[in-house]
Design a protein that fits this description.
This protein is α+β, with helices and mostly antiparallel strands. It has one domain. It contains 3 helices and 3 strands, in the order αβαββα. Strands 1-2-3 form a 3-stranded antiparallel β-sheet, with no helix packed on it.
Amino acid sequence: MRLPDEEFERIYEEVDLLECLKSARRDLEDMGLLLCCQGARLNVFPSGMTRQMTEGRLAYSFQSGKALSDDDLVDIFAPADCSEVGTLEDQLAAMRKLFRMK
């Protein structure tokens, strides 16, 4: 995939930082790219209260069979290993599987 030669800039004005990140990821996915940040990891998902309290900056890193604690909170913009990230669709499917939802 070749990026455009011209510089491009996008401004996201969503309800919180998580929604801005999701919009940016969607745009990058349309170009065939994945963003390697904690918020794009397949096992990272926000809780409503944490999302409200941090304007969407923090989310939980879920692990099957493990109770959550504040130690599991990650900054969605912190770097992540590229082998741990996926598309928005992949992330939603992983969370549904974790919670055994269809």
